[in-house]
Amino acid sequence: MQSPVPHSFWSTSDVATEDTGNWADAIRDALVACSSRPAKGEEPFAGRLEHAALGGIGLSTVVSGPQQVARTSRLIARDRRELLLVNIQTEGQSLARQDGRSATLLPGTMTFLDSTRPFMLEFSGSFSQVVVQIPRALLPGRSLVGVTALELDDHGPGRLVADFLLGLGRQRRNEPGVAAALLPHAVGLLESVLDLTTRDSATQTSAELTSQRIHRFVRQHAHDPSLDATGVAAGCGCSRRTLYRALAADGQTLTTLIRRLRVARAQRLLRDRPTLTLTAVAVQSGFGGAAQLHRAFQSVAGMTPGTYRAAAMDGEASPTVVGSEVR
Please, what are the domains in the chain? Predict the structure, then answer.
């Protein structure tokens, strides 16, 4: 069985041939045995991986291009390391699958994977991800079946833990002694998040989780003027039919949701950047122009952007559109 190395740095630029065999070996040495298949048309393949071990816990940073990574039953039989993998997305987007669930990861979100069961990771474009490897021995008696491949968004306790773990990785480079002293707290925080995730997953239905994923994705991309049903469905790993059904259950349409979020963004810009032109506000909020902003603002907020800005300067405007703070 391959043991994780204490510290290593690997890059495709350091080898003569940029093939995925070398890349899979690097993943195996730093994380666990997995296969790697680059997306079609993305050759030559490029990637870099930095790994360090701290008190038995692994901290790895992976930067690479579009690919599919899989841990199969056959690979598990060859590499029986029992780890809780904490995958934190820092750039790009990925889709994690395990135990019949899938989690769409955007920057700032994270998920848990269990190395003792098959899983798959799909990266549709260039990405950066931090992977923390926690030996299962540090989590005695803990079942991971109900917590894998669930999205921990960038607003809840998962974000606090993600920030702590990312900070721990930075601290390791500068002051390894301090990082080692903080390490036990990382395990304690993870246990708390696992407890919360187990509780939430037991009470939430699949439809509710899908709805949360859709709202989160739209909230993060509403400023993109090209955002449409096809893009949202692809980004959330669901069909357009599922997308429409989930939003209908919430009593709204995709068009309405995007409009409200764009108006909320426009309100913040009008309030916080009083010298910004209405055209610039419109473009930065995802609207096609000032006229489109005016119509949407009037429809959602019941006033024009100019009236809202004047009220904001007088301290009379409400901070955000009522109901715009969706999940």
Answer: 7-203 (2.60.120.10), 208-313 (1.10.10.60)
